[in-house]
Structure formats: C-alpha cells, structure tokens
Amino acid sequence: MKKLEKIDLFNFDLEIGKQKPYLPLFYQTFGQPIGTAPVVVVNHALTGNSNVTGENGWWNDLIGENKIIDTNHFTILAFNIPGNGYDENFGNLISDYRYFTLRDMAKIFWKGLDFLQISNVFAVIGGSLGGAIAWEMTILEPNKIQNLIPIATDWKATDWVIANVLIQDQILNNSDDPIADARLHAMLLYRTPKSINLRFQRKKTNEIFHIENWLINHGIKLKNRFRLSAYKLMNHLLKTNDITRGRKDFLSIIKEIPTNIQIVSVNTDYFFTADENRETYQNLKSVKENVFYSEINSIHGHDAFLIEFNQLAQILEPIFNKQKQQNYVNA
Questions:
Q1: Does the pTM exceed 0.90?
Q2: What is the rounded CA–CA span in Å between residue 304 and residue 306?
Q3: Which residues are catalytic?
Q4: Are residues 153 and 101 in the same domain?
Q5: Mind telling me which SUPFAM superfamilies this protein's record contains (predicted)?
Q6: What range does the domain containing 205 cover?
C-alpha cells in the first residue's frame, strides 16, 4: 500500500453548529506529482478507502498506468472520510457520528485541497456515498471543478435511501453481531434477485445453502476490517445527502454551475435507482447543456460500479482521453 499522508485540521465548524477542535484527514496520491498534471479526486464508497490503485487497490481496473484514468497523465488524489478507520493506526474513529453530515465531509475535502494548494480539479469522481460527496463538493466550489462524475448515486437521499439507512442503523445499534448482521441486509440491497439466483442456483453443501455461506462470509470479512463506529458514521452520512438543504431549489442551484456533469447510473440499482437518475438528468437538461447521462447495464445492481469495469471504462473514456490528448498538445 502506498504511504498514507495526513493533514491536521483544527477548529472545524460542523453544519449542526458544533465545532471539532481537531480532525486528521488522511489521503493518498498516485500518478504524477501534485502541481505537474491535471488532478482527479476519487471519493471512496461506504466500505472503501483511499487505496484506489496499486496493491489491493479497489479500482485497479480503471486507475493505473495506461488505464482509463491513466497515472502517466494525471495526479490521482483520494481522501479518507474522517472516521472511516483507514489511517496509520486504524484509529481516529468518531463516536458522535450523528453530528456529521455529508456536507461536512465535502467541506473537509476542500480544506484538504486548499492545504495542498490545489485550486483547479479536472474531475471529481465517486460511486455511491463517494459520488454523493462529489455532488456536494461541486456545489461548494463550482468554479474549481471541470467535470463532476457521480456514479450509482444521487444529489439527494430519497425516502427509500433514508428508510434503508434507518434499518442499517437499527441493526448496528441493537444486534449482538452488528457489523456482520448489517452487512447481510446491505448485500441484498446492493445486488439483485437475478444476480444472486443465477450465481447460487439453490445449491448447498452439508445442508447449508451456498447463498447463506456467501452472506455470512461477507459479514465476517467486513467485521475483520471495519470498525463499528466507522460503519455507523458511513451509513449515517447517506441520509444527510441533500445539496438543496438550506439553499435554493435544485434547478436554481444547477443553473449557476459551469461544471460538466456526467451522471452514470446502473439500470438494476435498487439503492440509488436509475429512475431517479434519469429524472435528475431530464430536469438538468432543461437548464444546462453540458450534462450527460450513461447507464451501466448489469444484473448485479448497485455494486455494478465495482464489477462492470469494461462498461464504465467506455463511459469514462471520452472524458479522460480528451484530457490526455490535450496534455500531449501542451507537452
């Protein structure tokens, strides 16, 4: 794993009116040194982290040498959401998780970018929770981001998302085995009946169905690498997603944003549904020209953004290859 770097933040004002005297912000960079190439900020999802490429990189199929997001041509920057537990001591956890909102995290990321003296970002990209933070980052600093690429996410938490966050929160606060049990529920939300039925086909070993083993193993794996307070925080942030909170209505906000917006949804997503994303796109088109919509076709549901790499690469190729060509011209 590439070495983690840390930025110390002091006296950070939370959206709810409280202040955190100290917050460590951990991050990793890949590719070209800061200040020498266009910057791509990659926001991780609920159980992800800043290790986006290289050894154990969770987006190795998209990010790396000669990949779509090419480390030969871009500076890749990935922050860890404070409290996710992925840091030098796997500590610095947040117990008062309900104090934080997704907007707080977006502001923290901008604090990090300011510290690194990055004033212009070629693209902010993220899936699920990371994509929601990308939306909020764009609203906060619309003139600093050229391309917003939210994947399998939305600019708001729908009632459906809020309901599932509540179920997860109840499990995390009441179960005897909270992380594992919450993961059982989450995995069924992130996949589809067709995906699971085709994969397991009612097979069993020693009277235990393979689907049961698969779910139990996912619960064990997450429990071994994720802290309870971190899971509570990441889950809670999902329901605080709303770029219009305390602001104008959605279209009025978007009118003022010059950023190119490339929405990517998954046709079978049961969490951030494609219907919601299509509606967002149609509304955006009424006030903004440089907005685009693409859809990943998959039986795998929400998690397709971590599975269908070929389709995602094809969607992203025009954005990143155009910039690479510009890099060659300016070299």
A1: yes
A2: 5
A3: 128, 269, 302
A4: yes
A5: alpha/beta-Hydrolases
A6: 160-235
